[in-house]
Amino acid sequence: MVSRVIPVAPFDLVIFGATGDLARRKILPGLFHRFAVGQMPDAARIIGVARTDMDESAFRADVQAGLSEFVPQAAGNSEMLSRFLDRIGYVRVDATGDEGWSALRDVLRADVVRAFYLSVAPSLFGAIAARLHDHGIATAESRIVVEKPFGHDLDSARALNVDLRQSFDEHQIYRIDHYLGKETVQNLMALRFANSLWEPLWNATHVDHVQITVAESLGVEGRGEYYDRVGAMRDMVQNHLMQLLCLIAMEPPSRFTPNAVRDEKVKVIGSLEATALGDIVRGQYRARGDEKSYRDDAGNRASRTESFVAMKVNIGNWRWAGTPFYLRTGKKMRARSSEIAVVFRDPPHMIFPRMEGRRGNALIIRLQPNEGITLRNTIKEPGPGGFRLAEVNLDMTFADALDQQGDPQDAYERLIMDVFRGDQTLFMRGDEVEAAWAWADPIIAQWEEAGLTPSGYDAGSSGPEDALMLMHRDARRWREIE
Ligand code: BG6
Questions:
Q1: Nearest residue by C-alpha to atom 15 in ligand 1
Q2: Whether the model pTM is above 0.85
Q3: In this structure, which topology does domain 180-408+428-472 adopt according to CATH?
């Protein structure tokens, strides 16, 4: 299948923290991809900004080195690479001082979209936003993009919102949750709202429960110091898993516009019931074989930070009352596997003999890897010897179904292009982030107050035993992580 690429309007993108890891790994490679397929126009420019004292050619050399590391095909296409590098400039700016701002103002053009990507610590968001405003660099049409973590709790998220809104309006602020840029995550909306098949079944009458799993096989990978202050609840559940839950649970928006979609998500978060401590399992991985323990990886022998969370969440609204959502995420699990399973109730009256191990109808949406959809059905087992039932999968991967080859678009690429298009649908609104913290804060406070130590689980396993119990006691079970 040939995908249609519609170029975005010319832009000046200013990347603060341009020499940092995220810019090198994700933002610049993403822009290069979009340039290579013709979506980033020739008239677009990227201006790197950082504290480092270097000139344009040194920065271009730095970008080139990053691209050859993270985009193998860049090296093989020297003509494309040099055209891309021609669009790159550099300005040295002191984010918290006065130096460099007027030079930055002078290089920006008046007649193109202006976007400022803050790939820096959140503690700098307010200072940079204020200077962009005070130096007359930000116009009424400019956009500002900020990365997670958006706060550490409700108070800090509110403070960041206040800081940003002093210089930018909400419609100019693009808060990134890269999960929303993943193709399959966007597909949740297509699946639900472009088909008539599911909606009649998409409620507590027909859905027994929903499982959302985001399992990672990697550990904290050199981010131990940061991660140890944060933990899985803040790093993954409050944002990424919450977004997945919202997309599954939300009411159909009346139209596909940024605020209509985000209004519905905010309503879901507002309907979440308080989660009791007994409905949460926190885990921390132990050493196994060659794999080090979390505490060794994080460099904190006494750490009580969770590298795994499983929880049962109830949504107190008409559609979902009585249908729990079980969420689970962890590092150093047995496989990298993210999926959502919508598990349907059994038929009200079963005329066939009981089937050993029956799991029932389920719609499984695989987010990564091997993106696709599976529909678990019950059929008659073929052959003589009585009427026996078997469960089989109707299975498809998006790659096969759409005959897609090669590199799929990375989440960042999609999101950055949406910034230039001025489409905020896949970005979190300020009230949405605050609502998610308002839900997460009391949960974290409960376990901090109780002084709980996370349950251990072996590196490379499916998580702690207690997480299995969370389901077993409700006569349900998690799907295998594979
Ligand atoms: C990030 C978290 O937001 O998401 C990381 O900070 C995590 O800890 C990552 O590893 C997972 O993203 P992905 O795209 O690899 O599933």
A1: 216
A2: yes
A3: Dihydrodipicolinate Reductase; domain 2 (3.30.360)
